[in-house]
Amino acid sequence: MRSVPVSRENVTEYVRYCGQYGAEHDESFLPDAAFLPTAEFPAYLLLKQDEVVGAAGLMRTPPYRDKGKARLTIFHAREATAAAFTQLLTAILPHTRDLRSIYGFLPEERTESRRQWEALGFIVERIAYVLVYHAQEVQPTETPPGYELITLSPDDEPGIQDLCELWNANYRQQLGFVGATLEFIQDAFESAENIPGGTLLLRYGSQPVATIHVSRDDLETKTADIGMVSVHPDYRGRGLARLMLRKALGIALSHGLSPVYLSVNAENRSAVRLYLSEGFIEDKVMVCYTLTVASNT
Q1: What is the mean pLDDT of the chain?
Q2: Pair (164, 223) in one structural domain
Q3: Could you tell me if 229 and 243 are in contact, meaning their C-beta atoms sit under 8 angstroms apart?
Q4: Do 184 and 221 share a domain, yes or no?
Q5: Domain range for residue 26?
Q6: CATH code, 91
Q7: Residue 296 has what pLDDT?
Q8: Do residues 171 and 243 both lie within one domain?
Q9: The total number of structural domains that make up the chain
Q10: Alpha carbon distances (Å) from 102 to 67, 204, 259, 264
Q11: Following DSSP, what letter does each residue of the chain receive, concatenated?
Q12: Do 150 and 214 fall within a single domain?
């Protein structure tokens, strides 16, 4: 077996492989047909007698690099052997010399791949639930008096800054946290996954108190994904998270997007209870693995 970098000549094979086997790994950031490898998105194919038998890709965008980490977009071999995963890891390690760690997710049931990751030195960092909402309607809810629900636009820089600051303040201590920036949110507005009106900020007077973001999860299956759910600590216990969740679900369904997914860390028990009470059900359990690479620096 040998690994080769993804280039314009073989990128179609890489995208095809990721599409075929992504569900056995983590579907969150799989490449689409427009993908091209860059310094921020290096990628490799694993070949066996010119047949593609594996793939590895990293996401090294600024929000991740600022935390000294990169995220595996795919790290998969058709045959989950030590030789295959060692070859893939050897290929991507040169892209981690300025980092402290890399991390990625595997479904809990992928026991053989998990065993091989652990043999390479990956350790379990946390457990996340992927929850799904199949209902075609949402319980009605009204914004309470004194609160203002704002639909953010790309040119509303003060509003986006408020959203980022509240999100970052709420979650910077959480395992796996990657901060949001003005540039990151503005780029999201330009992506194919953007839903008009899908980025919401709740204010009480001039105080930002809650955030949420809903986007297209899969362009082909017309599903949606909810993220950036946060409430200011001083305003919790007032039903604001439930309000924001219902607003986001309503936006997704109004665009014909269903089912709706979200991911939540297992230790965030209050959030898990909220989502289940609103009609979400467990879709899968994902195990987050991290590998320290600081010795490469």
Answers
A1: 93
A2: yes
A3: no
A4: yes
A5: 2-128+287-296
A6: 3.40.630.30
A7: 45
A8: yes
A9: 2
A10: 11, 39, 30, 20
A11: -EEEE--TTTHHHHHHHHHHHGGGS--TT---TT----SSS-EEEEEETTEEEEEEEEE--HHHHTTTEEEEEEEEESS--HHHHHHHHHHHGGGGTT-SEEEEEEETT-HHHHHHHHHTT-EEEEEEEEEEE--S------PPTTEEEEE--TT-HHHHHHHHHHHHHHHTTSTT-----HHHHHHHHHSTT--TT-EEEEEETTEEEEEEEEEEEETTTTEEEEEEEEE-GGGTTSSHHHHHHHHHHHHHHHTT--SEEEEEETT-HHHHHHHHHTT-EEEEEEEEEEEE-GGG-
A12: yes
* Choice between 32 and 17, residue whose per-residue pLDDT is larger: 17
Q: At what angle do helices 157-171 and 182-190 cross, to 10 degrees?
A: 120
Regarding whether 151 and 92 lie in a shared domain, the answer is no
Distance CA 129, CA 202 (A): 26
Query: What was the pLDDT predicted at 23?
Result: 87
Same domain, yes or no, for 35 and 147?
Answer: no
pLDDT in tens, 70-118: 999 999 999 999 999 999 999 999 999 999 999 999 999 999 999 999 9
Please tell me the distance from the alpha carbon of residue 269 to that of residue 243, in angstroms, as a whole number.
18
Q: Which tens digits make up the pLDDT trace of 34-43? A: 899 999 999 9
Q: Are residues 140 and 270 in the same domain?
A: yes
* 147 shares its domain with 273: yes
Assess whether pLDDT exceeds 90 at residue 177. Answer: no
Q: Which residues pair with 203 in a beta bridge?
A: 148, 208
Residue with tokens 């998990």: 114
Structural contact between residues 182 and 161, judged by C-beta atoms closer than 8 angstroms:
yes
Give the separation between CA 46 and CA 55, rounded to whole angstroms. 6
Render pLDDT for 192-245 as a digit per residue (tens, 0 to 9): 889 999 999 999 999 999 999 999 987 677 999 999 999 999 999 999 999 999
Q: Model pTM?
A: 0.86
